[in-house]
Amino acid sequence: MQPRTHVTLEDVARAADVSLATASRALNGMRVTPHLRDRVLAAAAQLAYTPNAHARALAGASHRTVGVICHDVTDPYFAAIAGGVMRVAGANDLLVMLASTFRDPEREIAYVSMLRAERAPAILLIGSGFEDTRWERAMEAELKPYLDGGGKVAVVSRHRSLKVDSVLPENRAGAAAMARALLELGHRRFAVLSGPRALTTVIDRLGGFRDELTAAGVPLDAAHVVEGPFTRDGGYQAMTELLDRGLDATCVFALTDVMAIGAYAALRDRGLCVPGDVSVAGFDDIPIVRDLTPPLTTVALPLREIGEKVMELALTENTGSRRRIVRLTGEVVLRASTAKVGS
């Protein structure tokens, strides 16, 4: 049989009808059931699969390589955090390998498995965890032997289940502060553009915003919370859905700035003006939002500092018995995208 070119691990997993993580573990000699290992090895042989040559070359220098797994490195939120990671890594003569999961839990686990196989000394997980017990068990099964073997793990925004050193942006408190600021502008009718409810970041931001409104006697109707991907297109689609229903809000709060950017586009396409027809607010303060027309009101997180802190956690020894947690607060920045009601 002639070897196929560019056969990937995904091809092997598909042919064996197993997950990416299982395929990676089987091919790297890690623990899987004999039946599954045989299926994976048979599929790899049939497809003439060979491990990525570049990754294997890096394995020889793996003691100087840090693996960074994020949801989407093209998202300015993750890019800014990665910039902070790379600054500290560079100062310590470390190479950074970046991987994007695109919020696929199985792909995330598979990348952790592969970094274990490459003997990376540290793994950073950047971005929200998943409220999914199956994911939690699978991730713990990957990380425990890695940690027991001396590997270092540090994470951003994953305080639900992973018992590792963490940098935690104060998402709930930041969203609550945004609610207070918008209430002070006179808004009482809100809509929210939400990301997937399984993400811990969504749970915290939506919960903080809703709880603060409730405390002020302002209900947030479930019908006014529209879910979409944490992307510009997700924000566009969610905003369009709100408009199609007949928007009954003076202010729209997007749980990320990139969703707010999509909301701007959807409103513009309908001939509506921000903030003349509706105010819009976001969360994160990615650099581009200051240059929007109008500039976006948002919760500003210290994104580069988040990256620096999580890298520093991975590089410094934890001498205590408990995991270290670094909490970083956000600050509401009022810009021209939100106006006082009646002004």
TrEMBL record:
Residues 7-60 form the HTH lacI-type domain. Keywords: DNA-binding, Transcription, Transcription regulation. CDD domains: HTH_LacI (cd01392), PBP1_LacI_sugar_binding-like (cd06267). InterPro entries: HTH_LacI, LacI/GalR-like_sensor, Lambda_DNA-bd_dom_sf, Peripla_BP_I. It comes from the Bacteria. Gene3D superfamilies: 3.40.50.2300, lambda repressor-like DNA-binding domains. The keyword Nucleotidyltransferase does not apply. One of its GO terms (molecular function) is transcription cis-regulatory region binding. The keyword Transcription regulation applies. It holds the Pfam family Peripla_BP_3. PANTHER family: HTH-TYPE TRANSCRIPTIONAL REGULATOR GALS, LACI-RELATED TRANSCRIPTIONAL REPRESSOR. This is Transcriptional regulator, LacI family. It comes from Micromonospora humi.
